[in-house]
Amino acid sequence: MIYNLIQIPFRIALLPAPPDKVMLGFTIVDIACDVIFLVDMYIKYNHLIIIDKNGDEVVSLALIRSNYVHGQPFKIEACASLPLYYVGNYQVMTLCRLPRLLRSSQLSKYLRSFHTFVQEQTASAAVTEGLEFVKLFLTLVLASHLAAMGLFLISHAEHGDQHGDGASDVTDDVPSWYSHDFVIEQFHGSIGATYLRAFYWGLGLSSFDYMDIHVSKAGETLWFCVVALSGVVFIGVIIGQVCTAIFNANKVEMQLQNFAFYAKMKKLPGFMVRRAKLFFQFQLDCNKGMDAHEIFRDLPQCLRLELFKDLYANLLAPIPIFSMLSPAQLNAVAERLHSKLYLPGDDIIMEGDVGNALYIMKQGLGEKHLRTFQLIVAPVYEGSSFGEVAFFLAKRHSHGVRAVKCCEVLCLTKADWTSAWSSEVSLNFKVKMAMAVEKEDQLMERITTALKGNFGVTGQASIKLTSMLGVKKRASLSDKHTIAGRRDSVPNYFEYIREVSRSGARKGPLLSQFAPTPRATIWHPGPPQQPSWMPHSLFRNVWDVIMLAVTTYYVTMVPFRASFVEFPQPAPYWIVIWFAAEYVLDVLSVADFVLRFQVFYVFAKGEMQTLPAVLRRHYRVHGPLISDIVALVPVEIFAIGLFSHTNSWKLVSLCRLNRILRLVHLPRLTHSLEHVLSRRKWFMANRTAFEYMMTFVAPFFIVCHWIACLWFYVSFASRSHGDTPSWLVTMGYLPLNMTMASTDDIPLGFSESTKFTSMNVYLASLYYAVSSLSSQSFGDVFSRNAVETWLTLGIILFSITFYGVLVGMLAEMMQDKLHPRASFEQHMVDVSTFFNYRLLPFDFFIQTSRFSRLQWQNHMGRTEDDFLSVLSTTIREDIAMFVKQNVVKNLRFLLECEEVFVRALVTKLRTEQFIHADVIYQFGDVGRTLYFVDVGSVSLVSATTGVQTRNHNEFFGGVALFEDVGRTVTAIANVECTMFLLYHDDFDKLVDRFPEYFDRCYKQWCVRDEDPIQKMRGSSAGFNHLKLTPDGVVTGSSDHLQKSPILLVAPAPPAATIPAPLMHIPVHTRPTPPSSFGPVKTQLTTAAVTGPNSRQRIHPKLIILVILIAIHPVVDRCISQELKLVLEALQLLYIGFSVPFCFGLLYDPLGTATTVSTLSTYLTYGLDLVEVAMAFIIRSPMDMKFLSDTDRRNSAFMNKLIKLSSWDKKRVIETVHVVLDWVALVPFHFFWLANPSQDVGQRWRTMA
């Protein structure tokens, strides 16, 4: 197919009458291709097994033939293989081959089949992505070939043959593009040169047009437009493919950035952040951040069983407890296994926890330990199971299991185990498994008792196992440090919180004091680690920054010197000093190679690798070993000995280009620089700019620099062969008769007097490179000979791919940065549309909008689960323990509970935020949730007990967890609050695991909201001294009540004490849906007018605001949302059209107001009126902020309006915006237009 697609258009366009021997070769190959097509049809007709719509293989010959004959491919292949053969005129013989091009429509299908075949054979992500680029590259070349042949055919049909002596078949005064092309003229109209220039045009027009080939006829112009549009679509496809590949490759990196934002927001300790980053690194090494159950959730059951059988069945078979299962039962268990990752020091199983899961060590190393006695009991190797005793015997774990290395553990929950069998089979398995593990449990108890005694933990030792194991009874301080450092021990944050709470006001302990220190270890401590060789140590960071500078020098200065610097004879001293300094950098590069090869530690296979042999093996397999060796080879030494050159310094400079291969270290070195800068406070605000520079600007500049060096060197060197011109000649840098010998010494700096200097020519070459790489050529620098044309073709092919990669990386970065913001804006639009469509209360819309803005400001619209869901269970528990430590500190009974219960509790608490005046729940609501106040305060309004306040570190709503009754109070947020919620379902699961703690929880939390809490912290600020009158009116003296849109729900009591009220607000039992602004505004307006404070002077601005608010519903109903959008579009047209056009009037050549300028001016006046209307119609009166602080304090009504007007932006910025809006509407032009002292033209220009 590819052969026919290339040679048939080529023969028709450029080779209609080839020589006899060439035509004979074409004919032989054509017949061979026809035979291959017939064989392909025969195989499909008789032997190719097909797959039906049910996924079954069809082997029946009759069905295969019927399916093929009645299918669309057969019709295309039959038409393409028509026996159209002719012997005679060579051009007619070529035209008979045109039906063969019909099979080219199946090319994409065969490419996909080949891609699938390679994927099945290699299963490599790099190969898959490489094949995608190969397919795009092949498509680009074939499309450019067809575009080139189409252009020549159309040009030849419109202009005729204008080669040679100029005789033309078609009489035309306009010369064709190929008749006066300088490259074609140099080769005297040869077919190769013509095809080269045509292909250059077709390839360049897909994205790069240097405007050196001009079309003049209608057919050529139309073809130009078709190819240009197709090129734009193709470039869009390339960028889309690259964006998808980069997005899939950077998922883990995006998760890491999201966690970094969360850690900064919550101010997590350094060790938690480091462990989270280590977890992401291990996740990337282990499974690339992918979950098999998530990826293959859409597979049918049979394929899922087969998949997980291949993954886990061989691991389950040797385990003793699964030996009684059949292969089918093993497959059912394998399908239900879930992979979990743990870091060194993470607790996989905690001592005393309920056995609700069975674990299998797939990768890594663990240890069974007694946390109470700090004693290690037994190791856990790969392929072994643990937790089976508590799992099958329904008891608590007698010991814990902790990860020693980074571990991948397969988890089988009790619910999954039960769902795998029927009730009868499950009961049978339960009995057999219980009998099997009971013996192991008894054996483990005897071993544990003996170990306790022999290590002196409890009782007397009958046998001195310490001497047999070769360990001391108590490890020394140095041993503890070595073990803890090797196992990456983690401070116990729960113990730290407990000790801090007990210490009270006294100086608390340090967190580092709570790292686990086992009494004895069963692991060999290994060689001591050198802190300087650890990743991100101070020495490593400084060294990486130095090597970043060295590598930057190599990739920039070495190619510049090889291309633009000519060395005079004899060489001056500065050249010798330059090369000597560069060899010093070579010594640093050799030292860097040695350090990375066998000294610097790396994280691999779940642990920090420190052995030199392992480091060397890792560098050979995963590191840039080959590129480093090639980059350090002194090629210049061998070149000087083997080749003779008139200028040895130039030869040495060219032979040192292999140092550029050090470029492979740039991503890692840049990451180290980012790690160093991240410790500076100013860097966090500029991280996006740094990422933009390193991701887009730096690679773009380096590649442009290389293209500039290559473009100049090839052009400068190639012009010495013959008298072919170069762009250096046409641009005036070199005379035509200058030779290489006459340009031995090129000045280095910029110069206006001497045009041919290194920096002058470099700037011109860099201009060409930037324009080529960004597809923004202006046609002033382009290829002038065949060599430069070939180089330009290579630059175009490379630039398309590289530009697509750069744009894809930039798009991915912008997507990551702007997608949350765009999602938030779209959410706000959806909320506004819904409220307008349903005619819901406006005050409720204000509250909803404020809550959404608060979520965006604090969490960028993400929830806590979005940030932490990918982390391991232990890390999530540690983070939850830190974030919710106030709950643990202030609930004293938790400090006496087991750590496993406290960890389970804090992970069940959900974080919620409430804004000022939010009604958390109302009287009579049914909601079984307990609230812990972390930040802020809440008022509990009751008909019997008045108002109580719950401040930070206090709770309310606890009765709902234990009794299914309605709420007895109304809870209102006094300020913006952050609370931790414990839902009833989560509480039920918690007490199912730990039933012994139910009574304690009931005693502590079952407190009615009307009852005062024993210890209240802080003063009550909010809804104080409110009372409920028999008429159903809440009375009180709180200023805060005047500012809050509160809707209280309570029954009218028989009697209540009424203090001297300052305001009266009626309380509704269940309000009906209010109209435009809701009943709250009506109540507050009545209160403001009829209350004792209503005699205050009403400011005139308040009257204006009331009028605007009054007409706002009318305007909203009269003008649709679509009309508002049209007016906004007209407003944009006003800015984009009228202002530039008025500037054009300044240069009116007639000097008078023409009809066009008059009409445009009237149009400008009309758009001015639209602008004025926009100020009142589009912008809601609720957003006008022109009331002073004094006005806000003078009236409760004004306070209410200001609150609804969203006073959460900076007043200065708002004032500037309003002033600029109104200044832009001042009709200054009316004053100058009516000035009689100027003539008409001068007045028009002044008005503009």
From TrEMBL:
<feature type="transmembrane region" description="Helical">
    <location>
        <begin position="625"/>
        <end position="644"/>
    </location>
</feature>
<dbReference type="Pfam" id="PF00520">
    <property type="entry name" value="Ion_trans"/>
</dbReference>
<feature type="transmembrane region" description="Helical">
    <location>
        <begin position="790"/>
        <end position="811"/>
    </location>
</feature>
<dbReference type="InterPro" id="IPR005821">
    <property type="entry name" value="Ion_trans_dom"/>
</dbReference>
<dbReference type="InterPro" id="IPR050866">
    <property type="entry name" value="CNG_cation_channel"/>
</dbReference>
<feature type="domain" description="Cyclic nucleotide-binding">
    <location>
        <begin position="893"/>
        <end position="1008"/>
    </location>
</feature>
<dbReference type="InterPro" id="IPR018488">
    <property type="entry name" value="cNMP-bd_CS"/>
</dbReference>
<keyword id="KW-1071">Ligand-gated ion channel</keyword>
<keyword id="KW-1133">Transmembrane helix</keyword>
<dbReference type="Pfam" id="PF00027">
    <property type="entry name" value="cNMP_binding"/>
</dbReference>
<feature type="domain" description="Cyclic nucleotide-binding">
    <location>
        <begin position="321"/>
        <end position="414"/>
    </location>
</feature>
<dbReference type="GO" id="GO:0044877">
    <property type="term" value="F:protein-containing complex binding"/>
</dbReference>
<dbReference type="GO" id="GO:0005221">
    <property type="term" value="F:intracellularly cyclic nucleotide-activated monoatomic cation channel activity"/>
</dbReference>
<feature type="transmembrane region" description="Helical">
    <location>
        <begin position="1159"/>
        <end position="1178"/>
    </location>
</feature>
<dbReference type="InterPro" id="IPR003938">
    <property type="entry name" value="K_chnl_volt-dep_EAG/ELK/ERG"/>
</dbReference>
<feature type="transmembrane region" description="Helical">
    <location>
        <begin position="1212"/>
        <end position="1234"/>
    </location>
</feature>
<keyword id="KW-0406">Ion transport</keyword>
<feature type="transmembrane region" description="Helical">
    <location>
        <begin position="221"/>
        <end position="247"/>
    </location>
</feature>
<feature type="transmembrane region" description="Helical">
    <location>
        <begin position="761"/>
        <end position="778"/>
    </location>
</feature>
<protein>
    <recommendedName>
        <fullName>Cyclic nucleotide-binding domain-containing protein</fullName>
    </recommendedName>
</protein>
<keyword id="KW-0812">Transmembrane</keyword>
<dbReference type="GO" id="GO:0016020">
    <property type="term" value="C:membrane"/>
</dbReference>
<dbReference type="InterPro" id="IPR018490">
    <property type="entry name" value="cNMP-bd_dom_sf"/>
</dbReference>
<feature type="transmembrane region" description="Helical">
    <location>
        <begin position="22"/>
        <end position="43"/>
    </location>
</feature>
<dbReference type="GO" id="GO:0005249">
    <property type="term" value="F:voltage-gated potassium channel activity"/>
</dbReference>
<keyword id="KW-0407">Ion channel</keyword>
<dbReference type="InterPro" id="IPR000595">
    <property type="entry name" value="cNMP-bd_dom"/>
</dbReference>
<dbReference type="InterPro" id="IPR014710">
    <property type="entry name" value="RmlC-like_jellyroll"/>
</dbReference>
<keyword id="KW-0813">Transport</keyword>
<feature type="transmembrane region" description="Helical">
    <location>
        <begin position="575"/>
        <end position="604"/>
    </location>
</feature>
<keyword id="KW-0472">Membrane</keyword>
<feature type="transmembrane region" description="Helical">
    <location>
        <begin position="538"/>
        <end position="555"/>
    </location>
</feature>
<feature type="transmembrane region" description="Helical">
    <location>
        <begin position="1125"/>
        <end position="1147"/>
    </location>
</feature>
<feature type="transmembrane region" description="Helical">
    <location>
        <begin position="692"/>
        <end position="714"/>
    </location>
</feature>
<feature type="transmembrane region" description="Helical">
    <location>
        <begin position="136"/>
        <end position="154"/>
    </location>
</feature>
